[in-house]
Each structure stands twice: as structure tokens, then as C-alpha cells.
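Hi there,

I know you've been waiting on this one. I reran it after we fixed the sequence typo, so this is the corrected version. Both the input and the resulting structure follow.
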Amino acid sequence: MPRRPQELLYLLTRTERLAVRRVRSVLDEFDCTVEAWRVLDLLSDGQGHNMTALADHAFLPAPSLTKLVDQLVDQNLLFRRVDPADRRRVLAHLTPRGKRRWQLLAREVRADWGELETPLTDEETRRLDELLDRLAGTLEDPGTRGPRRVTTGGQERGVGRAR
């Protein structure tokens, strides 16, 4: 019998919060937030990314991301450039200092994570990654199974307000 949605949601939320708490304990030593770490992580590929991609990766609304990016620019960890393919867009890139910072943070988080005595084998970890990725994809795009019922925060904010 499949789990009830609330049971799955509880397990996923609990796991995510415990994992973030663990990562945050490492990042706090370097005065870095989880959201900043996520931005640095995405930019570490050297490709440059637009603000929408950064907001999605950091799980932040656009105004909060803009504030965070401004702080990271002020710290000389990243810089912005106009996208040569679409001059209306801006791409963010790591500075050399930002790349060193990301490498340090990634090494420390990986070392801390490596200290965990995980009950999962490498194969189970790979399978879990695969299953979670598939579940996330299904929730993002329910396909032809009927009308999309996932709402955005903007739609929910308007509920109960006078217009």
C-alpha cells in the first residue's frame, strides 16, 4: 500500500531540515548561509547563470536573491555581466576569491558529511538520488494526468485579500 501523501511529506521535510541543520552548522563557522552556499555551488561550474536559475537553485524569491547577490558582490565573491546571448539578461559568475571560498566550503561540508555513519550503501544512495529526482520531476510536471494543481506562492498570497 502506498504511503499517504502527508507521511511522505513529513519524512521528506524532516530529512531536509536535519540535513540543512547539519550543513548550516559547518557553514556558520565561515559566516555563510545555506542560500549563499547554494548560489556559490551553482556558479562553481564556471558557466555563469541568470538570476532565475540562481533563485531556483537557492530556493529564494527574486527580491531575496537580489539582496543576497548584492551582498556576495560586495564581498567580492561574484560579479555580474550582461549575457552576450541576450543583452536583456544578466549572468552571475564567481570571482577568483569566490571560487576559493566555494572550494573551501565544499571541502568542509563534504568532510563533515563524510563523518556520518550512513546506513545506506553506495548503491542505495545512488538509487535514493534517482528516486528523489524522479519524484521531484513528477511533482514539477505531472504530464498528462490531468490539470496541474500545484500553485505558486504568488497565487496563494492573493487568497483572502481584498483587491
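Quick highlight: Strands lie at 49-50, 78-83, 86-94.

Best,
R. S.
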